Each structure stands twice: as C-alpha cells, then as structure tokens.
Amino acid sequence: MPVRIPDNLPAADTLTEENIFVMSETRAANQDIRPMQVLILNLMPNKIETETQLLRMLSNTPLQVNVDLMRIHDKESKHTPADHMNAFYRDFDDIRNRNYDGLIITGAPLGQLDFTDVSYWDKIRDIMDWSQQHCTSVLFLCWAAHAGFYHLYGLKRKLLETKRSGVYLHARSREHDPLLRGFDDEFYAPHSRYAEMSVEELEAHPDLRILAASEEVGAYLVISEDNRNLFVMGHPEYQKDTLAFEYHRDISAGLNPSLPVNYFKQDDPALEPIGRWHGHANLLISNWLNYYVYQLTPYNLKTEEIQGITPWETNP
Questions:
Q1: Count of domains for the chain
Q2: What is the helix (H) or strand (E) element at residue 164, kind and residue range?
Q3: Residue 200: its H or E element
Q4: Is 135 an annotated catalytic residue?
Q5: Predicted model pTM
Q6: How far apart are CA 200 and CA 194, in angstroms?
Q7: Which of 2, 27, 197, 236 keeps 20 to 30 A from 48, CA to CA?
Q8: Dihedral sign of CA atoms 5, 11, 15, 17 in order
C-alpha cells in the first residue's frame, strides 16, 4: 500500500526516485477504492489443491480481492469432482466480454509437448490475446510463462533431458523495481519443469526485462516493458510438500526422477522437506497485486478495453 505524506514533503522526491510509492494528502483525499477482480485460469490437474495454494497467497494482502475461477474446457476432470467444477468454474465464453484487474494462468503438466500439440492450444492463444485488452496485468506461472513467451513474443523454449526439480537460489537483477520491493538480494524459489528459456534471448528482446535469475536455472522473473505481463518460471505457490508429492508420484510411476535439489533434509527423501521460499512467494504476489494491479487498474472496469499503462521508471 502507498505511504500517505503531506503535500510537497521534501522526502517525496527521493522516495519517488527509488520507486517507493507515496501518495500526497490531496490525492489520497480524492481516491476511490473498490475490490480487485482477479481471474484464475487453472490448468493444473488437481484443481482444488492449486486453488488453495493461490488463494492462500492472494489473501495475504490488505486489499479485498474477488476471485473468479475459469477452466479451459468442460471435459470431465480425472482429479477433481465434476460437481466442484460445475459449481465453481466458469467457461471462457461466460467471461469474454468482461474486464479484470488481474489474470493468473497456472502451470500445466504439458512440459514435454510441443505447444501446437496441446489439445487446447487454440483456446489458450485466444485467452492470451483477450487478456492483452481485458486485463490490467497477467501473471503467467511456469508452463504458462513459456507458452506466453512463445505466443506473445515469438520466443521458443529449450526442452531439457531431465526434469528440473528443486529449490534454487536466485538474485535480483534490478534493485528498485516495485515488484522486488522488500526482497533480499538473494532468495529461494521452487522449480518443477522440463524446459527453460534462453537468458540471452530474453535480455535481447526489447519488450522484456529480467528482474531475477539463478546461475543454475536461468531467468525466474521477467516482466514486459508495458508492465502488463509478468512471467514466473517457477512455482512460488507450491506448498512445502508439493515437490515431495511429485517426486514420490513419479517414483511410483516408474519414471526414475532425480532427487529435488536443495529440498529434503540431508538430501534424504525419507526426511521432511525444508520450506524456504514462502516469504518471497507471498511478497511476490502482494507486490504484484499492489503495484501492477491495484495501482494501475482503472476504477471503472466496464470500459471496452483496458489500455496499457507504464507508470514505473525502473532503474537497471
């Protein structure tokens, strides 16, 4: 949330240069506030688990957030009861004429498929195109991030020989970007994916900038220059035992997965995992909601199109 200060306070100039959001008393007195409208496109198999993970983080903010859940198709889910899907999920046709403050597109267990071989690829493309006019900010997670780079920016991912799984150390690439407000210089984040993006291609693209990266696993946070699209190459929403569940599931399926890196105590899968990313994950979502949704979105969402806004002069 912004800091409210007296009009013309000298500290305002310094704070503004550091991208600290301050609000004058005059502006604060005339500000209208309403709930944020956030849409979640849930592509994960276990819908209820993913809903819970994301809602837990969305709730960790003083903002009031109204959430709609969307499914990619109405086919029966193997992992989620039909009654749940029919009661709580909307189809794209139900909301395509609406605007939202924020959209979250989750990851999906499709890491080894070409995008064009995904059965609902055409619909994913339609939703991504729609989001660029109907959502103030879009948060792409893991597989969705790679899909967004491919469709919106023409960048291809590189498939890995083995699954990238574990909790990796990352560093901020920019100091004063609002999304990184409160982040330590280094922080941990979980990854679970079969592909990665080229850091060199991301750095060279004029419409993208890297905010955080890892020496081991490459770019982690990337944002578009118009601040509309935020790409997260990992899974900050994962709970402490999620990677353990995936590892033991793959063992049971005879897939011979590698042990998740820097995750189990003493690297022993019989011992409890170590959760070391929840602080950064909650701060990431809180900063996204505050600086890239709440502070940018129009008060009236009932306009035909939400225009892109670029309010932050970010320092390298």
A1: 1
A2: strand 158-172
A3: helix 199-204
A4: no
A5: 0.88
A6: 19
A7: 197
A8: positive
- Known binding residue 71? Answer is no
107 contacts 142 by C-beta, under 8 angstroms = yes
The answer to the question of residue 95 being in a domain is: yes
How many whole angstroms separate alpha carbon 213 and alpha carbon 203?
11
Given the residues 134, 170, 191, 237, select the one marked as catalytic: 237
Instruction: Flag whether 186 is in a domain.
Output: yes
Q: What is the pLDDT of residues 229-286, one digit of tens each?
A: 999 999 999 999 999 999 999 999 998 899 999 999 999 999 999 999 999 999 999 9
Instruction: Extract the tokens encoding 204.
Output: 């060279």
CA distance 208 to 204: 8
Residue 229 belongs to a domain? yes
Tens-digit pLDDT profile for residues 24-61:
767 766 666 788 899 999 999 999 999 999 998 988 88
Q: Is 56 annotated as a binding residue?
A: no
Please tell me which residue in 135, 142, 170, 191 is annotated as part of the active site: 142
Place of tokens 């035909």: 304
Residue 142 annotated in active site: yes
Q: What CATH number does residue 133 fall under?
A: 3.40.50.880
pLDDT in the model for residue 208: 98
| Angstrom distances, CA of residue 226 to CA of 25, 42, 209, 229, 313 | 28, 25, 10, 8, 11
Using left for φ > 0, alpha for ψ between -120 and 50, and beta otherwise, residue 166 falls in: left
Per the rule left: phi > 0, alpha: psi between -120 and 50, beta: everything else, 22 is beta
Give a yes or no: residue 266 inside a domain: no
Domain encompassing residue 160 = 32-238+276-294
For residue 2, give the DSSP letter: P
| Pairwise CA distance, residues 148 & 284, whole Å | 19
What is the SS3 string spanning 247-289? HHHHHHCCCCCCCCECCEHHHCCCCCECCCCHHHHHHHHHHHH
Q: Both tokens of residue 127? A: 């939703």
- Computed on alpha carbons and rounded to an integer, the radius of gyration of the chain in Å comes to 20
For residue 316, pLDDT beyond 50:
no
